[in-house]
Amino acid sequence: MTVIFSVLLFLFFPCNSQFSEPAVAVEQQPGAGIKGIPSIGLGTWLSDKGKVAHATEYALDLGYHHIDAAWIYRNEDQTGKGIAASKLHRKDIWVTSKLWNSHHRPAEAERAVKESISNLGVGYLDLYLMHWPVSFIPNSDGNQLDKSVTILDTWRTMEGLVRANYTRHIGISNFAKVDVEAILEMCTICPYAHEFETHPYLQQQEFVDYHREIGLKVIAYSPLANTNPVYNRGLPYGILEDPLWTGLAEKKNVTAAQAVLAWGIQRGTMVIPRSVKESHIAQNLRALEIEFTKREMEDIAKADKKVRLSNPGKKWGVPLFHDLDDPTMLDGETKAVEL
Ligand SMILES: *[C@@H]1O[C@H](CO)[C@@H](O)[C@H](O)[C@H]1NC(C)=O
Ligand SMILES: *[C@@H]1O[C@H](CO)[C@@H](O)[C@H](O)[C@H]1NC(C)=O
């Protein structure tokens, strides 16, 4: 039924998307302003709702031009207040948001992107990502999987969001390599970026290189690894106390956090550290000034631990990252972690 309806709509509105109203005023589309995604952005996952507005405003006025948001973070309204309060023009800010798993069906997706745009107060997005390659039944309790929507269906829906001018670019997040390939084979509007977990403890260098070869930007989430208090993989110390990183930091007269972020930037990924603290926000930005030698980069590469910190696959009952380092173990096994 839905398929027939979509086909009919397509016949009647062949050059447009399946969406009813043209969403965004054409004059709001940026011509000049920001071109590509900036190497460092402010992350907002788990940012305190009461603090993220100030953090966003502070970051933008300090020199950030990139905000990483998502519908599911449930703080886009406050993040939007910060964007509005900053001195930057809309066209000089790169704003990313993400389609939640419960919103993969076309009508849900359109409602969700409008809600994110409206909460962020931005008129349009620069980048809209499929947050996970997983679809939930809308409004279902307990994240029931929606077998009726594939990631290819969802990609088609997202292409429609570009045509309707809700977003300049679309992309993916948390995809396995085979799923990236599947999208590349069928896309008309192809992904601009892939946002996934990568940091010195989960380097995935081959996967990062693969994205460079196919022309997809990599946005590195959790670039400071296990500094996030929600992560608990039994590592004996946080990355900021890791002797390799305190050593490098001392050598360069910077903080360990700056060194770790600088590594992410130097390997060509975009890093999106979250912070609501002014001092950290300012410090993180200065990672742009640090450089490593080839030898130092090789030493860091050797210290990869292949430890994934974010994997809800077991909770959702879906295998994730199955062709990458440290995939979902559905049988209850967890990999022993040793440093
Ligand atoms: C989207 O923007 C383009 C370029 O500004 C414009 O030509 C087109 O008509 C717009 N589409 C919709 C559906 O508003
Ligand atoms: C190290 O950094 C601090 C703070 O940025 C600065 O005050 C100091 O002069 C630096 N020392 C050297 C040796 O560069």
Care to describe what's here?
By secondary structure, the protein is an alpha/beta fold. The protein has one domain: TIM Barrel, CATH 3.20.20.100. The chain is 36% helix and 11% strand. The chain has helices at 2-12, 52-62, 76-85, 106-120, 151-163, 177-186, 205-214, 243-252, 256-266, 278-285, 294-302, 313-316; strands at 42-43, 66-68, 94-99, 125-130, 167-173, 193-197, 217-221, 270-271. It has an eight-stranded parallel β-sheet. The longest helix has 15 residues, at 106-120. The termini are far apart. The structure holds 2-acetamido-2-deoxy-beta-D-glucopyranose (NAG) (2 copies).
CATH topology: TIM Barrel
Give the C-level CATH assignment. Answer: Alpha Beta
Measured by DSSP, the beta-strand proportion falls in 5-15%
CATH architecture: Alpha-Beta Barrel
Runs with pLDDT <50, length 5+? 1-18, 20-31
What's the N-to-C terminus distance?
54 Å
Count of helical regions? 12
- Bound ions, cofactors and other small molecules, one mention each: 2-acetamido-2-deoxy-beta-D-glucopyranose
Which structural class is indicated by helix and strand composition? alpha/beta
Number of strands: 8
Helix content: 25-40%
> Strand count, sense and closure of the main sheet?
8 strands, parallel
CATH superfamily: NADP-dependent oxidoreductase domain
- Average pLDDT taken over every residue: 89
Rough outline: globular
